[in-house]
Amino acid sequence: MLLMVVVALAAVALAPHSRAGTRRHGAARRTRAAAGPLTPAERAAGERHAEEAAVERVLSYTPAVTEGGHHGHQLALTFDDGPGPYTLKLVHELSHLHVHATFFAIGEEERWFSAGTLAELRAGDVVGDHTETHPMLASLSARAQHEELFEQMVHIEALGGPAPQLFRPPYGSFDATTFKQLRALHLLMVLWSDDTSDYTLPGTATIVQRALAGAHPGAIILMHDAGGNRAETVAALPAIVAGLRRKGLEPVTIPRLLLDDPPPRGLPVPTSLAGD
User: Fold this and answer.
1) CB neighbours (10 Å) of residue 111?
2) pLDDT for 191-248, tens place per residue?
3) Using CA atoms, how far apart are residues 143 and 120, in angstroms rounded to an integer?
4) Cβ 218 vs Cβ 74: under 8 Å
């Protein structure tokens, strides 16, 4: 009998607190509902956070990627060596086409062409690390490699951009020391599966043909927005995007590709590539 009385008293004592807790949770739900749907800025911030987390997940099982997975309908357009005189035109064309891309920028170029990088950031494109001066990394000491990587990151943050999570080696040159430095700076190396060699100025039609020939789910296509005359690359973009969409493929940024269709675990770590 005594036990039943104690249990009954405890239930009475806890009841107000339970009701108060229920009221608090109910009020919180009503507050969230009253706030209405997320604003575009809140949605964009949430998407950025999810994409950044996706890069971290991929980095947890591989130091480098050459493409995403093959299960979706997305691929990535990437541009190296900027910013430069053609970067603003290229960003404008991408925006007109409703496409986001990934740019691997050289730090020292920000001294003259930072308007291009600022335009990329405003447009919602992603800016990665392409070193400070565009050297062959495999020929440098550990300290020199670190400085090349870190100084570029400082330039991007000074412009108000997020610290880069992605890195592309100039000329596809890297070694074991490079991977150690990338690990220290928490950077994922992004290589490519399709090189258009647009820097050789092969003509607009050839750039289009090469981009579409290498297009498949998960592909990472390499082009350039600086380092020379890039009028052919800018002119090729509308036909490239139209051709991709006819194939049922949609260009996205590298972080978005890694979020929606990441590469599988267990792939061999890429070795040094020629190009760029």
Assistant:
1) 8
2) 999 999 999 999 999 999 999 999 999 999 999 999 999 999 999 999 999 999 999 9
3) 30
4) yes
Q: Classify residue 167: in a domain, yes or no.
A: yes
- Angstrom CA distances, 267 to 179, 215, 264, stand at 16, 20, 7
Task: Look up residue 262 and give its two tokens.
Answer: 């990441």
Which residue is associated with the tokens 């690990």?
183
Most distant CA atoms of the chain, gap in Å: 94
Q: Name the residues annotated as catalytic.
A: 80, 224
CA distances from residue 50 to 43, 55, 81, 238, 257 in whole angstroms, order as listed: 11, 9, 27, 29, 12
Q: What angle do CA 207, 210, 216 make, to 5 degrees?
A: 130
Chain centroid to Cα 29, Å, comes to: 34
Closest by Cα among 105, 182, 101 to 145: 182
The token duo for 4 is 């039943």
In the chain, the number of structural domains is: 1
Give the domain extent around 243. 40-260
Phi, psi for 75 (deg, rounded to 5): -145, 175
The full DSSP string for 58-74 is: HHTT-SEES---SSSSE
pTM value is 0.85
* Measured distance CA(245)–CA(139) in Å, rounded: 41
Q: Is residue 134 part of a domain?
A: yes
Let me know if residue 126 belongs to a domain.
yes
pLDDT tens per residue across span 135-175: 999 999 999 999 999 999 999 999 999 999 999 999 999 99
CATH number at 123 reads 3.20.20.370
In a domain, 50, yes or no: yes
d(CA 151, CA 241): 33
